[in-house]
Amino acid sequence: MDVTVSLVTGGNRGIGLEVCRQLAARGHEVLLGARSPDAAARAAKEAGATPVRLDVTSAADVERVAAEVGRLDVLVNNAAITYDTWQRPSTADLDVVRDAAETNLYGPWRLTQALLPALRRSAHGRIVNVSSEAASLAAMGSGTPAYTASKVALNALTRMFAAELRADGILVNAVCPGWVATDMGGPGGRPVADGAASVVWAATLPDGGPTGGFFRDGRPLPW
């Protein structure tokens, strides 16, 4: 039986690292992407993965990785920046907003486009966009405008890719790991392993599973 090959961006710490661990424990061949080669190597050794130097904002990095990846079954777009708790939309620094969008929206978009040929060759293609309940329009407040706007757009991208790729059998979903005790989330959140399990659930959905959804712990969230 063929081994499932999974690529996780932002895999050197936090939720990304734990997703790599959990997928490797399930027998996946995990490609752990990180901007720093040293950070990727250290984390990959810890997770039982293969390190990949990958800055999702770099077109050259994305093109190189797409050329190097022979086959791919699962793409987890986890890399994200700028949980801007200090900002409000009325006074937000739009340069900060643009920087957040480069990593949180255009990065996953660019990488997904580049890796689609490999994912289309897979019999069980899966794309997981790691989002946040902060992006839910139903419960949205005024905080973290750069992060929130970029994740709203990522949710929209999820829906569009899901609609386009449904005929190819590629399942595309957005997942909120919840408030997790990571460098970005800060202390007080739930264990990293629990948040990562939400992502792994979507990455390992059976054929015929949901697509174009927004989930936490396997349960739908309001858009």
Automatic annotation (TrEMBL):
Swiss-Prot/TrEMBL keywords: NADP, Oxidoreductase
Family according to the record: Belongs to the short-chain dehydrogenases/reductases (SDR) family.
PANTHER family hit by this protein: (+)-NEOMENTHOL DEHYDROGENASE, SHORT-CHAIN DEHYDROGENASE_REDUCTASE
Full protein name: SDR family NAD(P)-dependent oxidoreductase
Source species: Actinomadura nitritigenes
